Amino acid sequence: MSLSKTLSTENIFPSQTKEMKLLLVGLKPSKQRDLLLRDLSPNYLIKIFVDGIELVRNIPKFKPSLILVESDLPGISGFQVAQLVKGHPDLKEIPVVLIISQGYRIGEFWSKEVGVEYCQPKPTYEPSMLAKKIEKLIEQFDEKSIKDETWSEINKKMSGDGVLASLSAILDDRLLQSTVANRIGNIAQNTSHLRNLQRAIMILLKDILEFNSGAIYLFKANEIYSFVEKDISEKDKAAFLEDVIRYSEIYRTPDNQIPPESPLEVPLGTFPIMEQFIERAPTIFTVPLETHKATLGTLTLMTFKAAARREYYLRFLDIIVRQISLVLDNALLYQEVHRLSTVDELTGLPNRRAFFDIFMNEYIRSKRFGLPLSVAIIDIDLFKQVNDTYGHLQGDHVLAECAKIFSKSIREKIDIVARFGGEEFIMLLPQTDMNRSRFVLERLRKAIEEHHFQPVESGNSLKITMSMGLTGIDGKGEHSLDEIVNAADKALYKAKELGRNRIEENPLFV
Ligand code: GH3
Ligand code: MG
Ligand code: MG
């Protein structure tokens, strides 16, 4: 380091002009500045500006290797200088060092947000240390990363009022981003239900962008949630969904492989017709919904507007997809946790807890409308022998297969079969009297009796039977849920006593 006391910004080694790197400095006069520049001037060309706008305008002219500014500058502040540089796709690699005049904590926070490489508090920074840090940053920066033709383009944009126009565009983006983030945050706070969340997101998007159809495709759920305009024909809608799938494929990663079946389409609703478009040539935008862990799926918007402003849509989508991904990821997680707490893992049937929730609702309904309701407990006969003979794994397999047979034989969305524990199942038949229930159970008993359960490994298939205890209420008396379950259990006990593979009844009315 030179001990030279010169503070000249002129080159003191004329022979090295060509190789010397240049610093743009926006620091107001002070003793510290003089000390800092004394350390730097032997090795670098230094151009000083005391006005932020002037400094930015001169970036393309001097092609600096580093920009050193203080936050409190006339024209535009050092923060804004930093935002302009760091928010510019071609300039953002140029290192920026910020000297913060006041409020260092918040200043440091903003510096990091903006992407400033290094910041120091004005009152206390150590000039020689800062000089060393600056040298290091300059060393790391590769000037060749910005091409000559890029510089001349930047020059055009930054002349005249270009600086302020660029700055206000950046600030507008930031404001829009945080406003939309805030709105999405509010939506997420009000609902964790996936479908409601997606509907709210679509409505918000519709407030901001013009589009005719929109879809959120979640890979894991294998569902497409779509919102279409009222006058969109079935044919156009089908074509749109096809496009959603086609364009989404490129965003699939190995951990969300192409599912065997096509995704389920869940309509979220319709938009009112905004405009009658004459030209029906759609523009489609598909962007990935990503978190740091994975690609959750995609967001697709389709617009019939002939002159869809591509740049505008893409920039806007880029701004908001992160927030959307974040809240969807949370909702998916919530849904999964909820599912795990209500579903029996082995059989995929509702567990005991989930069963009692449904049972309670159905009981209340039965009482209110005076409707019958039946409950049956179903127990595999001599299941211990299955485990003992074929192993526990085979036992598990039989349980899972039983669940499939049950699900096939009951009335979908009306009757409920749950795993009650071990090798016991419980069935709820709402609005069903015992005559009808007996018929359903008998059919089930037969189906099980006739079924050949496949071996997990090799060997012969095996057969099992089931005993069932049935009870029912007529919706007129007063019962507790436990009382109803106990009545069914008693009937089951009787069925076992009387030789198994049979149905016994124990109604709770006369
Ligand atoms: P019964 O006809 O009197 O019901 O005879 P059982 O052998 O079925 O009845 P028991 O209560 O003596 O035995 C039930 C067996 O079910 C014992 C237990 O190992 C087995 N079991 C319970 N849950 C599971 C499970 O999740 N997987 C497997 N493989 N076996 C289970
Ligand atoms: Mg049992
Ligand atoms: Mg048993």
Write up this protein.
The structure is a single chain. With 510 residues, the protein is an alpha/beta fold. It folds into 3 domains: 3-160, Response regulator (Rossmann fold), CATH 3.40.50; 189-341, Beta-Lactamase (2-Layer Sandwich); 352-505, Reverse transcriptase/Diguanylate cyclase domain (Alpha-Beta Plaits). 46% of the residues lie in helices and 19% in strands. The protein contains 16 helices and 15 strands. The chain has helices at residues 31-40, 52-57, 59-62, 78-86, 104-114, 127-140, 148-158, 162-190, 194-208, 234-248, 310-342, 352-369, 383-390, 392-409, 434-450, 481-497, and strands at residues 21-26, 44-48, 66-70, 96-100, 118-121, 213-218, 223-229, 264-271, 283-290, 295-303, 373-380, 416-421, 424-430, 466-473, 503-505. Strands 2-1-3-4-5 form a 5-stranded parallel beta sheet, sandwiched between helices. The chain has a 5-stranded mixed beta sheet with strand order 8-7-6-10-9, sandwiched between helices. Helix 9 (194-208) runs antiparallel to helix 11 (310-342) and helix 14 (392-409) crosses helix 15. The longest helix is centred in the middle third of the chain and has 33 residues, at 310-342. The radius of gyration is 35 Å and the shape is elongated. The structure holds 3'-deoxy-guanosine-5'-triphosphate (GH3) and magnesium ion (2 copies).
